[in-house]
Amino acid sequence: MGLLDQIGSLAGGQGGKTEQLQAIMTWIEQQGGIQGILEKFRNGGLGGVVESWLSQQSNQSVNSEQITSVFGSPALQDLGAKLGVDSQTASTLIAEYLPKIVDGLSPQGEAPAQGDLMSAGLNLLKGKFLS
Known about the structure:
The protein is mostly helical. It has eight helices and no strands. The protein has one domain (3-129): Arc Repressor Mutant, subunit A (Orthogonal Bundle). The longest helix has 19 residues, at 87-105.
């Protein structure tokens, strides 16, 4: 089951998927956008991981503990509240899908500017994860 399927089942239908996608993208923006997230990973000693997401190579994975270390429990509790799940589930979902999101938003190896994040992210997520 994909992220949007999981989110959609929590929200109870197609209309809910869009709302949940917006919640995820808003949360990413609150973390400083893709650029801010990449910086948090680099500062947390995971620069090689994010470089794999930006490159044409295979994406290195992260686990929920690394996600919690990078973002902190309060941020994940906030996301969990928006998605209707606990912080551990939110951490697991971000660990699974953040590499795909960053990779998909950076086809030329550079993350989008902050202002482009919401529209680019929603288009990417709808295209990749709804199909």
